[in-house]
């Protein structure tokens, strides 16, 4: 099963996250299937590939709660 979840990048106290489609059994820093966005919590910046997110979701990908919250803040509603 595929999940959309956050993958951590950066160093201590200066982390950023990439929103990725990744297999459930893979580690957080493991191999990703597709990168669909970025999130910078320090500057509250979000970049999303909405088409890729929609395609992955319609193919059965699950959303983790942090990713769901980011999408809600971006006012992107998945039906």
Brief synopsis:
The chain has a single domain, classed as Ribosomal protein S16 (S16 Ribosomal Protein, Chain: A, 2-Layer Sandwich), CATH 3.30.1320. It contains 2 helices and 5 strands. It has helices at residues 50-58, 65-73; strands at residues 2-11, 14-23, 34-40, 45-48, 62-63.
- Counted beta strands: 5
Overall mean pLDDT: 91
Radius of gyration: 12 Å
CATH superfamily grouping: Ribosomal protein S16
Spatially, the strands of the biggest sheet line up as 4-3-2-1-5
- Estimate the global geometry from the Cα principal axes: globular
CATH architecture: 2-Layer Sandwich
How many helix segments? Answer: 2
Number of domains: 1
How would you characterize this protein structure?
The mean pLDDT is about 90. This protein has 2 helices and 5 strands. It has helices at about 50-60, 65-75, and strands at about 1-10, 15-25, 35-40, 45-50, 60-65. The chain is about 25% helix and about 40% strand. It has a single domain (about 1-75), classed as 2-Layer Sandwich (S16 Ribosomal Protein, Chain: A), CATH 3.30.1320.10. The chain has a 5-stranded mixed sheet. A hairpin with a 2-residue loop joins strand 1 and strand 2 (about 15-25). The chain is α+β, with helices and mostly antiparallel strands and about 80 residues long. This is Small ribosomal subunit protein bS16c. One of its GO terms (biological process) is mitochondrial translation. One of its GO terms (cellular component) is chloroplast. Keywords: Chloroplast, Plastid, Ribonucleoprotein, Ribosomal protein.
């Amino acid at each position: 099963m595929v999940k959309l979840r956050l993958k951590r990048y950066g160093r201590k106290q200066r982390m950023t996250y990439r929103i990725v489609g990744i297999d459930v059994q893979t580690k957080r820093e493991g191999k990703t299937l597709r990168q669909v966005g970025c999130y910078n919590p320090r500057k509250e910046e979000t970049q999303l590939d909405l088409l890729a997110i929609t395609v992955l979701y319609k193919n059965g990908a699950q959303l983790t709660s942090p990713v769901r919250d980011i999408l809600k803040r971006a006012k992107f509603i998945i039906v």
